[in-house]
Design a protein that fits this description.
two-stranded antiparallel sheet; alpha+beta; 421 residues; eight-stranded antiparallel beta barrel; single chain; 9 helices
Length: 421
């Protein structure tokens, strides 16, 4: 939980994409016009339900301003057919392009053949796009699973798509970790985010199965530093030093995979690390304010580092407790390592003993996991006093391909077209 890492037209929801009974036609995704444009002179996008453009050099949902809600899902691919997987990725891409514009999947929830199930599940019918972004990633097991090269992709496995080392204190649940594919859906309306994952899972029936998923609320980091820094479930401001979505220099250095990458299909993409971090909320809530602040190395109110006046004042690490979270997570402690974070709080009921099942669903993008997440987490896992109150219980690492350039393009196209069938 690395705190220091830093006029729109209302789209129609009745536009038909041409989803035939035998499957979706990719080119039909452009029907009905483009996404609403977010203008600099417009009202805040969260109040407008505006659409975030789906097509672009990079996938939306990374440097994009962070929305309020999350539905994240990891999938296992259940088919061994390369052609079936490619067809699925094309169908998913077209469906995502539609949903991010506020349009229904296929003929919609009330159109189509009366004797058949509707193409769209319907719970987002009439809702605004709510800045929905849908981001996909590929897990290591998609390239090599138990020694099997199911889809002819093994020779395209990136070196940085590693199995994470076991960190001290990890208690990872395999049923909440890993996956061949992942999809991150973020929106300002939770129903819009859930609708996106639900419909992609439905389209994938018989080809993929949900391995695990996570709902999130209350973003715990921001890519827009001019806004107020959000707080995590421990009540502290989180992500003070996060990379801004407008800082192109930092994005190029720390987030996007460089062009000289050995596998060209991933150039301009990124690597995603997720960690489900359980918080011992009840124990934390009985800890004194002074001890809480010492653990983080920041005040709980303003969020300023010890010895400084304002939250964004650069901390003097020598003034902080040696095992404080801020000091251990700071780039200067970790060889300059930085990540772009998009984490969310979660509360999933209770654990059966009256304790909240709550914490942080950590999400971080970086150009190389080996020089981004790994050294920071090694530093934190060894010494961070916060470890008394948290535990990592789920984990995932995914390669995030470049953006979809326009209708006719699809998620992972460069990967599959660069390998033999």
């Amino acid at each position: 939980m690395a705190t220091e890492q830093n006029s729109s037209a209302k789209p129609s929801r009745r536009s038909v994409l041409g989803w035939g009974g035998a499957g979706l036609l990719l080119g039909a995704a452009a029907a009905g016009g483009g996404a609403a444009v977010i203008r600099s002179d417009a009202r805040p996008v969260a109040t407008m339900g505006a659409a975030v453009p789906f097509y672009g050099e990079h996938q939306a949902g990374i440097a994009t301003p962070v929305q309020d809600r999350l539905h994240f899902a990891a999938f296992d691919v259940t088919t061994d057919s390369r052609d079936a997987l490619i067809t699925l990725l094309k169908e998913w891409t077209a469906a995502a392009a539609a949903m991010t514009e506020g349009k229904p999947v296929g003929a919609g929830a009330i159109g189509g053949i009366p004797e058949a199930p509707p193409d769209d599940t319907g719970e987002a019918f009439g809702l605004e796009p709510s800045r929905l972004t849908i981001t996909i990633g590929f897990g290591r097991s998609l390239f090599d699973k138990d020694g099997r090269d199911r889809f002819g992709l093994r020779n395209q496995l990136p070196e940085a798509l590693i199995e994470l080392p076991k960190f001290p204190g990890d208690n990872l649940d395999p049923n909440r970790s890993g996956g061949d594919l992942c999809v991150q859906a973020c929106a300002d309306d939770p129903q819009v985010a859930v609708h996106a994952i639900r419909n992609l899972a439905r389209i994938g029936f018989g080809k993929v199965a949900v391995r695990w998923s996570q709902l999130g609320f209350g973003k715990t980091s921001s890519t827009t530093p001019e806004e107020q820094t959000p707080r995590n479930m421990m009540g502290f401001k989180d992500g003070t030093r996060n990379i801004a979505g407008t800082d192109t220099e930092a994005l190029d250095q720390h987030v996007w995979v460089p062009e000289q990458n050995a596998h060209t299909w991933l150039s301009g993409g990124s690597y995603l690390v997720t960690r489900r971090i359980q918080m011992r909320i009840e124990t934390w809530d009985r800890t004194s304010l002074k001890e809480q602040e010492d653990i983080f190395g920041r005040t709980k109110g303003e969020g300023n580092a010890y010895g400084k006046q304002r939250e964004h004042d650069e901390p003097d690490l020598q003034l902080l407790p040696a095992v404080s979270h801020v000091r251990l997570a700071h780039p200067d402690t970790n060889g300059g390592a930085r990540m772009l974070r998009r984490g969310y709080s979660f509360t999933d009921g209770t654990d059966g003993l009256g304790r909240l099942d709550a914490g942080l669903f950590f999400i971080a993008y970086q150009s190389d996991v080996r020089t981004g997440f790994v050294p920071v987490q090694q530093s934190l896992a060894r010494s961070d006093e916060l470890n008394e109150y948290i535990q990592h219980v789920g984990s995932g690492v995914f390669a995030v391909p470049t953006g979809v350039r326009g209708p006719g393009d699809w998620w992972g196209r460069a990967l599959f077209e660069g390998t033999a069938s």
